[in-house]
Write a structure and sequence with these properties.
single chain, 576 residues, alpha/beta, 4-stranded mixed sheet, 18 helices, 11 strands, 64% helix, elongated, nucleotide-binding, membrane, ATP hydrolysis activity
């Protein structure tokens, strides 16, 4: 077993602890593993004893059996044999499944804890960006990598411990009765480990994270190709997508095949070597010590045979740990990033301001970690309560970064952003995502404190009162019943209703009306201004018609704010 496979169990168990699994649960799992090891070892010894007694019937009782009857239990051989068979049956048919069920319940809890922690980490704002930049990568991490770590990391770690204990007990028992046979099997174990390492080198090393990376890329190809299926079919590019996908599928198949080959190649070699050594030890024992009774040899041979599956599972668990090492490292890195970002986040800065003032920023600047260019520089602006501020700018000017600073997703690298009070902000973007659940769940985002009247009013301001009336179940209509029938404008207005429901101080509309025609957009903005006159609004848009509803507008150019008079994006006037 390589150093990598020896470190992996510690990393897997450390990952479980980081996900909130209490140490008492881990200690209970360890006790269950020890109990299972004890049951397996006792079962193997009992089987060997029963086999030895069956062979001894009619050939004279072996010496050890006579000692047992004299000093422990005075029962006839047949009665003792029946009791031993009963105990063996209870161990294998009752006790072992019971311990397995308890262990399964703990594993279920651990799986949930790991999945919840991974999802929470993926939902942490990625300041500076982590490795995951695509939603499909997050899906792979939470729904597939977690399962792979549990089944290929945590389970094998426990199996490794259990089977090593079983092997140690059986080897000790064997060495006590027949030192020569025990030494031979121990030598075989060492040689088998060397053979496994040699096979791994012959079959080639691989990047532990390669399989995960390929899986993420393949899922992204499938998802993104489905999203642009209309264009692919229109332009006749389906075959081109398949050609691009094929190398990934081929490499993934090769990586999977190599993993399977390593597993399939090592098991027969290890078993063959141990069987030959076991047979050789019995042969040599009979030659060097012909006085050894047959039942004792049979007992030790049965124990040796029980060692084979134990050792096979040891090597199999080590192989799985090597394969899943990349996923374990990936999840550790994800949790490290989430912890670091959580430590960096801070509450909005609040200070005394004029009564009408909502927020102000002074010489605000931001540069992404590791980047050479500054995205925002010397941004100074303010917004009053009830004021509508328009923000325009070309793509890449820094509008999204400024929004993230206002929302607290990023922290400024220079300057100051202050609020009159801790703000309650609503946000709506160009695309509105619907989550599994009901219409009520999606407008309130699973909040339980919103009254039906508030939800209905938000939908009405967004222009969806008539649309809501057509659904008999109203706010409790499942998303699946209407999602496929939504137009782009209706979906966007659902996002607007969600933002309106949550906005108390500031509403940020980030191209949130792009899917609406100008008449519908104008009606919505007028309705919003009339319904919530005290709400501050930051309107980010490319439509000059929408800017007519704002009190003033600014232009963001190369990270700096300029006054905007409505002529064009290329003719700003510097803010005084």
């Amino acid at each position: 077993m390589s150093r990598l496979s020896l470190v992996a169990p510690l990393q897997a168990l450390a990952l479980i602890e980081r996900c909130g699994v209490p140490r008492r649960s881990m200690m209970l799992m360890l006790l269950l593993a020890l109990a299972r090891a004890a049951v397996d070892a006792v079962s193997a010894v009992l089987f060997a004893v029963v086999l030895s007694m069956l062979l001894g019937i009619g050939m004279g009782a072996p010496a050890w059996l006579g000692g047992l009857q004299t000093h422990v239990v005075a029962l006839p051989v047949e009665a003792l044999l029946a009791w031993l068979i009963l105990v063996l049956a209870l161990c294998k048919a009752v006790l072992a499944p019971f311990l397995g069920r308890l262990r399964g319940r703990l594993i279920d809890r651990w799986s949930v804890a790991l999945a919840m922690r991974a999802l929470a980490a993926e939902l942490t704002p990625a300041a500076g960006g982590g490795r995951q930049t695509h939603a499909q990568g997050r899906n792979i991490t939470v729904n597939f990598t977690v399962s792979r770590v549990i089944m290929g990391g945590v389970f094998p770690s426990l199996d490794l411990l259990t089977e090593l204990l079983v092997a140690a007990v059986l080897l000790a028992y064997l060495s006590w009765h027949l030192p020569l046979m025990g030494a031979g099997l121990l030598l075989g174990l060492v040689l088998a480990g060397g053979v496994v390492v040699l096979l791994r080198r012959l079959l080639g090393r691989r990047d532990p994270g390669l399989r995960l990376q390929l899986q993420e890329q393949m899922h992204r190809w499938v998802t993104d190709s489905s999203h642009c299926l209309r264009e692919l079919q229109l332009y006749g590019r389906v075959s081109a997508v398949l050609e691009r996908y094929k190398p990934l599928a081929h490499t993934f198949a090769e990586a999977t095949s190599r993993e399977r080959l390593q597993q399939d190649a090592q098991a027969p070699v290890v078993e063959l070597g141990l069987l030959l050594l076991l047979g050789g030890a019995v042969f040599v024992l009979q030659r060097l010590a012909p006085q050894t009774d047959l039942t004792t040899v049979a007992l030790c041979s049965a124990i040796g045979l029980r060692l084979l599956p134990a050792l096979r599972r040891v090597f199999g668990a080590a192989q799985l740990l090597v394969q899943v090492q990349g996923s374990i490292v990936e999840l550790h890195a994800l949790l490290d990033r989430a912890d670091r970002l959580a430590a960096q986040r801070s509450a909005p800065r609040v200070m005394a301001m004029p009564t009408a003032r909502l927020m102000a920023c002074d010489a605000l600047g931001y540069r992404y970690p590791g980047a050479s260019a500054t995205v925002l520089r010397d941004v100074s602006a303010h917004l009053d309560r009830g004021e509508w501020l328009g923000l325009v700018g070309m793509s890449g000017a820094g509008k999204s970064t400024l929004v993230d600073l206002l929302l607290g997703q990023l922290q400024p690298t220079s300057g100051a952003l202050v609020w009159a009070s801790s703000p309650v902000i609503g946000y709506s973007g160009a695309y509105s995502t619907l989550l599994p659940g009901t219409l009520r769940d999606n407008i309130g985002l699973f909040g339980q404190h919103h009254a039906d009247a508030e939800l209905t009013r938000a939908l009405a301001i967004a222009g969806l009162a008539g649309w809501l009336a057509q659904w008999p179940e109203g706010l409790d209509t499942p998303v699946g019943e209407f999602e496929q029938h939504l137009s782009g404008g209706e979906r966007q207005r659902l996002g607007l209703a969600r933002a309106l429901l949550h906005a108390q101080d500031l509403l940020i509309l980030d191209e949130a009306t792009a899917a609406l025609d100008e008449l519908t957009e104008g009606a919505f903005l007028s309705s919003l201004k009339a319904a919530k006159p005290h709400l501050g609004v930051l309107l980010i848009t490319h439509r000059l018609s929408a800017l007519r509803h704002t009190h003033r507008a600014v232009l963001l150019v190369d990270g700096r704010l300029e006054s905007y008079c409505g002529q064009s994006l290329s003719s700003p006037e510097t803010v005084q």
